[in-house]
Write a structure and sequence with these properties.
It is built from 18 helices and 14 strands. The protein has 433 residues and is an alpha/beta fold.
C-alpha cells in the first residue's frame, strides 16, 4: 500500500519504519526542514531500541522516504496517517488540536481517489467528526473516510510493540474503510486481536487505557509510602497483588511518579473531557494530584539527605522519563531536578546514557553535565538515581564510595539491593521498603 505519515516524532517515525518493513511504500511528512534533511541524510532523529537498524534497511530498500511537501506525500496515497502532537493547553490542560486541524485542512487539497485518513495521534472523542468536517469544507468532492487508529507503542519498546501488538484497535464507521485497514494489517492476521469498534469508542479506548495505567502506578506509589511506614516490602506486596489474574503484575513498580509524553497529558485531557461532559472522573483527578505531589516528596528526600550543608554537590543519574528512550518530556527527573534547583545552594551534576542533548534544552546551564556516571559522582555529597537504566545496576559500589565525598544514595528506582549498598558503607534511601 502507499502510505503517507504526517509527523516524524516518537509515534510517526517508528510507525513509518514498521510499515515499510511490512512491505508498504511509506512517505513521512514533517514541516520541520531540519528533521527531514537529517532523515534524508540517513541520520536518525530520535532514539528507540532497534529503530536505527530498521530505518537504514528500509531507506536502502527504497520503501521509505521523507519530505516537507504535503502534496508529494498525500497525492495518490491509499492511507494517510496523522501522527502529529496534541500537547496540553497551558491553562485548561485539554489536548491542543491546532496541529491536527492544520494537518487535516492542508491534506484535504491533495486527496486523489478514495483515501482513508487515520488518526494515530491521541485525540479527544469526536475528533474524527471534526476532521471529516474540515476536509469536506476544504475539498467538497473528496472521496475519503476517517478512522481512529490509536497507537499503543511504549517508548523504549516502540519497535517491539509495533511488531508484537497486544491488540490493534480500529474505529471505523464504514465497511470500505475497514477493508483498507484489514489489508494494512494483513501480516498480523491470526497473530493478534483486531478490535473493530465505533470511531468514538476507539478514541476513548486510548485515553481510558492510559488513565487506568497511570492510576495503577499512582496506587503502587501510595502503597510504597504505606510500606515504608508499616514495615512491609512493596515488592513483596506487588508480587502478591500481581499474582491475582484480575490485577496482573505490570505497572506495579514503585518510583518517582509517572511521566513522559503520554500519561500526564492524557490523564489531564481525560479529566478535562470528564468535566466538559459533566462526568465526575474522581479517580483520574486524584491520580493527577497525587502524582504531582509525588515529585515534590521525592525532591524532599534528596534535600533531606544534605540538610544543613552549605553548598552540597548532588549527582543525578537518569534524565529520560524512563530507560530505553531519550525523551525528557514530562520526565519525573526534570520535575524533581527543578524542585531541587529552586532551593538556594545545591550544585547539581547530571548524566544520562541517551538523553543528555534533550535534557540540555530543558536545563540549560543550571546544572553541570558529566561524560559518564563516575564523573558525575566525583566529590558528590549524595547520589540520586532517577531513571531505571540497566547500566546503572552494574555500577561498581566500591568505586562510587571512593569517588564520593559522602557515601549517600537516594535510589528512586530501587536500582541496588539494600544489602549491597549498606555493606559498602552507604547511607541508603530507596522506595517502598
Amino acid at each position: 500500500m502507499k502510505v503517507a505519515i504526517i509527523g516524524t516524532g516518537y509515534v510517526g517515525l517508528p510507525t513509518g519504519v514498521g510499515l515499510a518493513e511490512l512491505g508498504n511504500q511509506v512517505t513521512c511528512i514533517d514541516r520541520e526542514p531540519s528533521k527531514i534533511n537529517a532523515l534524508k541524510e540517513g541520520k536518525i532523529t530520535l532514539f528507540e531500541e532497534g529503530l536505527e537498524e530498521l530505518f537504514h534497511k528500509n531507506v536502502k530498500a527504497g520503501r521509505i522516504c521523507f519530505t516537507t511537501s504535503m502534496k508529494d506525500g498525500v497525492e495518490n496515497a491509499d492511507l494517510v496517517i496523522i501522527a502529529v502532537g496534541t500537547p496540553p493547553h497551558p491553562i485548561t490542560k485539554e489536548a491542543d488540536m491546532k496541529y491536527i486541524h492544520a494537518a487535516a485542512t492542508e491534506l484535504a487539497e491533495y486527496l486523489r481517489g478514495y483515501t482513508v485518513i487515520a488518526t494515530k495521534s491521541t485525540v479527544p472523542v469526536g475528533t474524527g467528526d471534526d476532521i471529516e468536517m474540515l476536509i469536506s469544507k476544504k475539498n467538497p468532492t473528496a472521496d475519503f473516510d476517517v478512522v481512529s487508529l490509536p497507537e499503543f507503542l511504549r517508548e523504549g519498546f516502540a519497535v517491539y510493540d509495533f511488531f508484537h501488538p497486544d491488540r490493534i484497535v480500529v474505529g471505523a464507521n464504514t465497511k470500505r474503510a475497514k477493508e483498507v485497514i484489514l489489508e494494512l494489517y494483513k501480516p498480523f492476521k491470526g497473530k493478534t486481536n483486531m478490535l473493530f469498534v465505533k470511531r468514538r469508542s476507539s478514541e476513548t479506548i486510548k485515553y481510558a487505557s492510559n488513565a487506568f495505567l497511570a492510576i495503577k502506578i499512582h496506587y503502587i506509589n501510595e502503597m510504597a509510602n504505606f510500606c515504608e511506614k508499616a514495615g512491609a516490602d512493596v515488592y513483596e506486596v506487588a508480587l502478591g497483588m500481581g499474582a491475582d489474574s484480575r490485577i496482573g503484575p505490570k505497572f506495579l513498580n514503585p518510583g518517582p511518579g509517572y511521566g513522559g509524553s503520554c500519561f500526564p497529558k492524557d490523564t489531564n485531557a481525560m479529566a478535562y473531557m470528564g468535566r466538559t461532559n459533566g462526568v465526575d472522573l474522581s479517580l483520574i483527578e486524584a491520580a493527577i494530584k497525587g502524582n504531582d505531589l509525588r515529585k515534590k516528596q521525592m525532591a524532599k528526600r534528596v534535600l533531606d539527605m544534605v540538610a544543613g550543608q552549605k553548598s552540597p554537590k548532588i549527582a543525578v543519574l537518569g534524565l529520560a522519563f524512563k530507560g530505553g528512550t531519550d525523551d525528557c518530556r514530562e520526565s519525573p527527573s526534570m520535575e524533581i531536578l527543578n524542585e531541587i534547583l529552586a532551593v538556594p545552594g545545591p550544585k547539581v551534576t547530571v548524566y544520562d546514557p541517551k538523553a543528555m542533548e534533550n535534557a540540555k534544552k530543558l536545563l540549560g546551564n543550571k546544572v553541570q553535565y558529566a561524560k559518564d556516571a563516575y564523573e558525575a559522582v566525583k566529590g558528590a555529597d549524595v547520589l540520586v538515581i532517577l531513571t531505571e537504566w540497566n547500566q546503572f545496576k552494574k555500577l561498581d559500589l566500591e568505586k562510587l564510595a571512593k569517588l564520593m565525598k559522602h557515601k549517600r544514595i537516594v535510589d528512586l528506582r530501587n536500582t541496588f539491593r539494600v544489602e549491597d549498598v549498606t555493606s559498602a558503607g552507604f547511607e541508603y534511601v530507596g522506595v517502598g521498603k
